[in-house]
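User: Could you check the structure of this?
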Amino acid sequence: MQNALLVGLSRQVALSRELDVVANNIANINTTGYKADGSLFEEYLDSAARADQTGARVSYVRDRGTWHDLSPGSIEHTGNPLDIAINGTGFLVVQTPRGERYTRNGSLQISSTGQLVTSDGDQVVGDAGPISFQPTDRQISISQDGTISVREGTSKTDSARGKLKLVSFAGAQQLQKDGNGTFKTVNGAQPQVVTTSAITQGSLEKSNVRGVVEMSRMIEISRSYAQVASMLQQQHDLSQSAIDKLAEVPN
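Assistant: Sure, the predicted structure tokens are below.
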């Protein structure tokens, strides 16, 4: 009976963790470039605990972590020349106070110092370092390969301001979320410069969270949690009943 309680408790802990993941996905359904997460669980067999005299092993649920759904989100046209969407597996490289990070959020802007930054103020890294603009720059153009050109002052010819640095990862699941829509590398994963991704100017990649699917999953998790809670209550009632009956046995 104690084994049943422990199995039920392990399942509730796993469901609680999964509910947190689903809730976070739903909360970021409108976050530009957001990538949904999924939960990973595994069966844990405890050879020490026995369910009955047959020697059957007790199976628990163990939370292994989360995985990233890196599938592309839908593309929304904005018309803003500083908005970009990445078609392909590439990530923008940004410099944050925590170090170099990677993002799919292409909502860019120009800081008060003339540097290209993200909506969070993180500096966008180009192939040759930071990308800076002059006060007289106009008609910003971003080509498919990430080259940024402008018309300077009254000039009728284009001047280059840099090229966006796009990278990808052989083991993208080794990326770890860090901050608002940014990833960091773990376990020694190294970014590789990618040339196969294309930039679409004036558009943004929306979150890839599927709202209907996530809401349905939240309902399923809530029902499963309630079912396990009911089972645990029944086990508790059986234990209490057995104790009460034993207490009635005369010495």
